[in-house]
Amino acid sequence: MANTRFDLILTGNVAPGVSRDAAINKLATLFKCPAEKVGKLLTGKPSRVRKDLDHTELKRFQEAFSRIGVITEVVPTATEPHADQESPEAAAKQSSHPATLSLCPNGTPVLSDDEHYYPPIAVPDTGHLSVAAAGETLTQNEAIPLPAPDTDHISLAPAGETIMPPAESKVAVASSSNLSLCGAGTPLLDQKPKTAYRVPNTEHLSLK
Length: 208
Hints:
The structure is a single chain. The protein is built from four helices and four strands, in the order βααβαβαβ. The chain is an alpha+beta fold and about 210 residues long. The longest helix has 14 residues, at about 55-70. The protein is flat, with a radius of gyration of 52 Å. Mean pLDDT is about 80; it is low at about 80-100.
């Protein structure tokens, strides 16, 4: 099996979501050929692009075409029959159903809806459940009685009696013994120093 050689086939189709024009341009860059020439490889017909490849070479080319977004197939390389091999009739019958492998780009769905396995959905058992009537108490917990508060030390005052006397408030009186009044016209601020301002020279200026 390690000595098996393979041929790489382009199916002529692009992967889902891949633009055909973009794939043609990338193939032209890969093959270093005009886009018009490599465009014939993506017309929906299979074409052999590489033959007699080993596993390493096959994987390298498959990855290159997968990045471009084109779908490839792999077939064993045909060999010349020997005298001790099977008859031509048997070989022709076997070649009518060649073993092919298909490699799709990452993300390509390979199973149909019928081939997917959908496990059965388990239905919960509700036979032991019932619906209570509206307003019915669902819990069976009994109410815990609370101890009555002690009110022996509390008494009622007659109507109109002042319960709390008003608190005495003391108003602080400001002391003015250290204050005095100045006579009328007395300056309250220190005299500002006189500043001499220089008149700017505007002889070189003119109005337009």
